[in-house]
């Protein structure tokens, strides 16, 4: 008998079609399915789940007695209650590495767009408001090259950001993570520092940690106050790693100069969120890894993890290896 899987928004079409040949696939596009009786019925039969950011918590797991593996189509796995999954011996996997460069490009793109005010000036040109041959100083941006960049979370993506900054833009790099990384320091001439030192000394700050109990709200009022008034803050991690209201206040009171945001406390972001009214805030809708090439690679890797788990092989990207019993 074919195994049953729930494929959850988003699994790229070729990957979905391949899974459909081998498994009974219940495909869900809507993110609001957790109370849907049909979803709960499918969940009660499923051996596997593959998808992006389905909140897998105790309540959901109570409806999933046959579940063997949850395969996230993302590297972040804050949507998974790992304690509950491990306690039940259910495997969980993610998709590291294949998205690293793409996310670093997004973060760097936000950084440059914010510093050079590209979306604002694009709008000015398109609105027919480019009146004089030489643009007025009120529309000048600030340099990126040769400035000081602080990276919070010097993991895979943090290092890919450092690579772009060091080799492409001659930036000085400060970093903060849980552990020091001598190889990274050597490769990018990077300097390890405390969070407070990084905040007060950097011209640009990129936050790219996972969302965990330790990082939730790690950047708030006190941290924004430590930043330079000319400082530009970029968040590529998760919305809840910062206190969003404190960012709004810091921008309103010119505590910092500008922000580039790919992630928000609530997603999709509420249309009346004050951040969306600010010219010095550049936003993207959580698209760090969203290129055709990378989304396909992520889906393929997630399917590979899922199939390994369902067929008695160790998935390459097991988040908690302790669930694997040889
Ligand atoms: N916007 C988007 O579309 C995307 C967002 N992301 C986000 O980026 C995150 C990072 O991904 P990736 O680089 O692959 O992950 P890694 O695990 O490779 O890196 C995470 C880094 O964060 C550091 N870190 C963890 N906890 C803390 C803490 N309490 N204080 C300071 N630093 C900490 C780690 O430190 P140490 O090395 O010392 O352990 C590590 O350097 C993901 O978890 C996800 O949330 C990822 C992809 C796309
Ligand atoms: O946000 C995306 C991820 O892969 O994590």
From TrEMBL:
It holds the Pfam family 2-Hacid_dh. This is Glyoxylate/hydroxypyruvate reductase B. One of its GO terms (cellular component) is cytosol. Residues 108-288 form the D-isomer specific 2-hydroxyacid dehydrogenase NAD-binding domain. Keywords: Oxidoreductase, Pyruvate. SUPFAM superfamilies: Formate/glycerate dehydrogenase catalytic domain-like, NAD(P)-binding Rossmann-fold domains. One of its GO terms (molecular function) is hydroxypyruvate reductase (NADH) activity.
């Amino acid at each position: 008998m074919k195994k049953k899987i729930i494929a959850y928004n988003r699994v790229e079409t070729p990957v979905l079609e391949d899974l459909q040949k081998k498994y009974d696939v219940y495909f869900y596009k809507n993110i609001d399915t957790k109370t849907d009786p049909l979803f709960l019925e499918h969940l009660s039969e499923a051996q596997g789940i593959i998808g992006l950011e389905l909140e897998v918590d105790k309540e959901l797991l109570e409806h999933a007695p046959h579940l063997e593996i949850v395969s996230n189509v993302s590297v972040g796995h804050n949507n998974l209650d790992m304690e509950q999954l491990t306690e039940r011996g259910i495997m969980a996997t993610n998709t590291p590495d294949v998205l690293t460069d793409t996310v670093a490009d997004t973060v760097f793109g936000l950084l440059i767009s914010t510093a050079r005010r590209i979306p604002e000036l694009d709008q000015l040109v398109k609105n027919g408001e480019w009146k004089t041959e030489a643009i007025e100083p009120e529309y000048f941006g600030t340099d990126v090259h040769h400035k000081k960049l602080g990276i919070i979370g010097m993991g895979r993506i943090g290092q890919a950001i450092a690579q772009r900054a060091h080799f492409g833009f001659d930036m000085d790099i400060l970093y903060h993570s849980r552990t020091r990384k001598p190889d990274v320091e050597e490769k990018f001439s990077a300097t390890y520092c405390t969070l407070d030192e990084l905040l007060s000394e950097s011209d640009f700050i990129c936050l790219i940690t996972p969302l965990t109990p330790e990082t939730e709200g790690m950047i708030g009022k006190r941290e924004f106050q430590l930043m330079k008034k000319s400082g530009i803050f970029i968040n590529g991690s998760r919305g809840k790693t910062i206190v969003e209201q404190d960012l709004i206040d810091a921008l309103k009171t010119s505590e910092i100069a500008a922000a580039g945001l790919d992630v928000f406390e609530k997603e999709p972001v509420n249309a009346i969120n004050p951040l969306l009214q600010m010219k010095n805030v550049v936003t993207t809708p959580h698209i760090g890894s969203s290129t055709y090439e990378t989304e396909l690679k992520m889906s393929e890797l997630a399917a590979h993890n899922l199939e390994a788990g369902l067929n008695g092989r160790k998935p390459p990207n097991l988040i908690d290896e302790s669930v694997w019993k040889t």
